[in-house]
Here is the input.
Amino acid sequence: MWSRLAASANRTLVSKSLFCLPNRYIHRNVVLQKYDVPKKPKSRNQIHENQAKKVFTPILHKPVEKILIAQNDPRSFGTLKPQVTEHEPDEGDIAEDEHYRTIPLRRDQLTQRRYEHMIKTFIRDKRLKEAIDVLEVRMKEDRVKPSYYIYQLLIMECGRWGYTKKAFKLYSRMKKRGLAVTGPTYVGLFNAVANDTVHPKIGLELAQNLRKQMFQKGFNANEIIYNTMIKAFGRCGDIETAFSLVDEMKEKKLRLKVDTMNHLLQACCSDKEYGFRHALLVWHKIYRRKMVPDQHSFNLMIRCTRDCGIGDINEMQKVIAGILTSSVKLKTNQDKVLRIEQKPLLMLNETEQNASENEPKPENELVVKDVCDQMPNLLTKLPHLGSIVELSMVNSPEDRLTLLGGLSGVIAEMEATKSRPNVKTFTQLLEIIPSKLEAEHELIQKMSYMRVRADTDFFNILMKRRILRKDYDGGKNVLAMIDKVNLSPDIATYGIMAMGCVTHEQALEFIEKLTEKGVRFNNEILGALLKNATYNNDYDYVIDVLEYVMHENIKPSIRFYEMLAKFKNARYNSLQQIDDDEKLIKYNRFYVKYKSWKSQMGLSGLSTDEVVKLLRSHPWKQLKQAEGEGIEAVKNKKTRRIWKRQHTVAKLTSNRLERMHNNHQSDTDKKDTTKQTKRGDKHIDENKENTQ
Here is the structure.
């Protein structure tokens, strides 16, 4: 009786443990033993003790898929087959498992300051791609939340490089993370637009949208942000917005400084048609607000003189009249007349001047103060026109420089404002002075008087001016000038020298000299040689250039390919009209070499548009690719901030040599006397010790 009751009780316990519990929990006895009838217990108390000892343990790693049921049991009604449903793994579950499985350890993660230091070192070494990878790759793998300062560093650096697309992507991620956007972030974004030379139109749209967002948020911009905004809109060609931003600064009672006016001058430089006229207005606004232009202001004004025009002659007349009437006090004793006629810019002689004084004056004449008897000068604080000037065709930079007082007038105004010119000032002046040897000598004398040391770029422009006016001997003399000031020519110097290789023999001699020096040719040098060869229609010259390109395996530029294709088409059309066997043989030799060159460069079978797309290299490509192997990560920390000493050789005269010799002898005599005194002291000390 008791055995039957115990068996039935145990059986019901097993069934409840199997079917009432979840799959991941299972009775320990069920897993370890078969479900046969248990043995007969000795008493009822022992049954309760065995039931109390049964513990349910979770199996976390491997859940039970099948449950074994006792078979061949006469007291069972049959067997229950397990019903297992196998589900396919979900991609989200797999990603979640991978996420939790690859959690880095605490000791493998770096702190925020360590990541910031890594980004700063890459930025210092001008490796923007690696700096961005720290945020997008390293910190993502380490599961570290980026801070506001990291985004600010990267946006500022993208702004210096002009990488507009990446800067605004980082800005959008920054907003999604809920990080605060402050002034330095806006400065970096507007700098990216200002320095972007690839897509200025897209950059202008982004700048306009960013300005609207700032207005909607009610962000109060300071002087630095306004200056960067003026620079961004001005360089993109939106001069009206740049001037309206200055009006906003006046309304907000922000202080206008010379830096703000310099950014307006940059905006004037972007307008190639009317920029010089706008620059004159901005320049005299500087004087009216009692500001003093600095070195950068003069450099920008000279740049406007070089690159920009005056626009409509009638509008230029109004501008000059407004400048003169607002800044010059009228006097009756000394007066001059400004006349505007349809004649080129010229200086009148004494007879013409006397004749013009005797003529009756019209009603609309403008009386101007006579400060200088010869040269006009619209750059000074008190502008004047000197002699009577007939203003109509002021198209060349030389004519515009004449309105500013010429070379002497610009230098005198810089001395009056106590702003010292630098090499950039004289380099820009060299490009706009008359292309004559006397004017160049005058400029060099001014440099030596102002104690400004010329660099290689200055001599490169000087050599280019002389070669363009076909003064090849003067161009060669520039090399002697470079050696005289202890400088060395660079790759741009060799490219300008290639412009002087007109004949085939000169080109071969030039190539031999450069190969002896170990200079590697580039597209600029080879393009200059090819231009001379195609201009003279010299087939042998062109073939030698192509052979050198194939031998050195140099990737051609778009200009090189277009020049070569234009020469081929022009020669082919000319030979169809003229029957000349010798020229036809030379053309066939050239055509065979041209085909082999295209096949070696991988350009065969492509149209001109396809070749241009293939050869065009995007400026942002270098920012998207990592540095190759073997590049040093960081320079030596001790030598990173050490400036190289500039050694100069002074002039040695006979008196100076004698003085140096006497100083050297006096130093040696002093050393000898000190040695003798030391020896005498040692001898005295030894005698004292012996006596003791």
DSSP finds 32 helices and four strands in the chain. Residues 9-42, 52-71, 329-373, 627-652 have pLDDT under 50 and may be disordered.
